[in-house]
Design brief:
The protein is mainly beta. It has 2 domains: 27-99, Trypsin Inhibitor V, Chain A (2-Layer Sandwich), CATH 3.30.10.20; 100-164, Trypsin Inhibitor V, Chain A (2-Layer Sandwich). Helices cover 13% and strands 37% of the residues. The chain has helices at residues 39-49, 113-122, and strands spanning 2-4, 18-20, 28-30, 52-60, 67-72, 75-76, 82-84, 88-95, 102-104, 126-132, 142-146, 152-154, 158-163. The longest helix is centred in the N-terminal third of the chain and has 11 residues, at 39-49.
Length: 164
């Protein structure tokens, strides 16, 4: 579909030529085994092989913050099963209900939005509204959050952030 640099362009020896291809099917990868691992580890593994972290559902279990099931389109997916890149994998994660379903808000200031999302997932919280103090930049860092660091909140609470 596309080539960079363009055809007939003069280039130096050993220069990389980038091609954009159009395929009927997305490339597939083998589903990794995420069960018994952490959300953070699952996020990193999925990202590294071209898959996305989907919905996280917390279920009462003694294995607090451990992944109990991995699902694709609502069905349990076994490790090694081929799955198209770019697809979302949903996780069922244990939550120890003896902890009264509360968690402590982590400090998000000074980190990127992507890092904040991971930290919130680990803390059993969700990213809420994202506000931009200036123009949107891919290198923006969190400058403010609500609720503030250290507060006890119920799990899955949304945390609003401001970026510069």
């Amino acid at each position: 579909m596309q080539q960079l640099p363009k055809a007939e362009a003069m280039v130096k020896n050993n220069r990389t030529i980038y091609l954009t291809l159009n395929t009927d099917q997305l490339p597939e990868v083998g589903m990794p085994d995420l069960v018994d691992g952490s959300i953070r580890n699952a996020y990193m593994i999925l990202k590294s092989i071209g898959l996305l972290l989907g919905k996280i559902t917390y279920v009462p279990d003694i294995a607090h913050n451990a992944i109990l099931e991995q699902r694709y389109k609502g069905n349990i997916i076994k490790p090694g099963t081929p799955i198209a890149m770019g697809q979302k994998v949903d996780l069922y994660v244990g939550i120890n209900t003896s902890k009264n379903n509360m968690t402590i808000v982590p400090n998000l200031c000074g980190i990127t939005l992507e890092e904040a999302e991971i930290i919130l997932l680990i803390a059993n919280l969700k990213l809420g509204k994202v506000n931009y103090n200036s123009t949107k930049k891919p290198t923006s860092f969190v400058t403010k959050q609500s609720p503030e660091e250290g507060q006890d909140v119920i799990i899955e609470k949304e945390v609003e952030v401001w970026l510069d």
